[in-house]
Amino acid sequence: MADNNILSLLESGRNSGYTIPSKSTASIHEFYLSGEIEEPDQYIEWFDTIRHARETDQVKIYINSCGGDLYTAIQFMRVLYDTAAEVTCSVEGACMSAATMIFMCADVFEVTPHSTFMFHNYSGGTFGKGGEMIDQLQHERKWSARLMNEIYADFLTEAEVTQILENRDIWMDGEEVVERMNSRMEKMAKEAKEALSKKSVD
Fold first, then answer.
1. What's the sign of the alpha-carbon dihedral 66, 68, 72, 73?
2. What is the model's pTM?
3. Are 90 and 24 in contact, with CB atoms under 8 Å apart?
4. How many angstroms separate the CA atoms of 161 and 155, rounded?
5. Residue 34: beta bridge partners?
């Protein structure tokens, strides 16, 4: 890239935001995910704007967050899946915990030099009678394993996901994240090409 302040811009197969009208009919919607990711009701306007953005629009999320509410991150993931717009996630400092889940859902990725990434298991608690707490823990073990494996597929290794589920924190610098994302995108592009070729033969 011409801009040396960004390590890499990768194309894949995704506290108040604002919209910048462009010269064409498209709009650029920009949001700053700074500090702790709060409860989902704090982002209703974001979700509504992103979900209803047009195919010609661009959504850009600037991330500098050590994480926060996991269920907010899950709703972000759904909203980013639903939108027709191209989504860019640009990391400008910290991208940790729940913030990494949002980062993984972009179409285009930007990483500022000296940014830090951290991946780990969710935090929570249990309450109720003994049997109820056991049921909750058994459910959350299966649920978290599926969540981690799906979100970080082809980015983290199976061994690393297992380590996360065993409560190890995995730290990376921006250069390593860019290298892994490049490999992930190459694999996705290859699989998409093979699927298209198979479909045309059928």
1. positive
2. 0.81
3. no
4. 10
5. 64
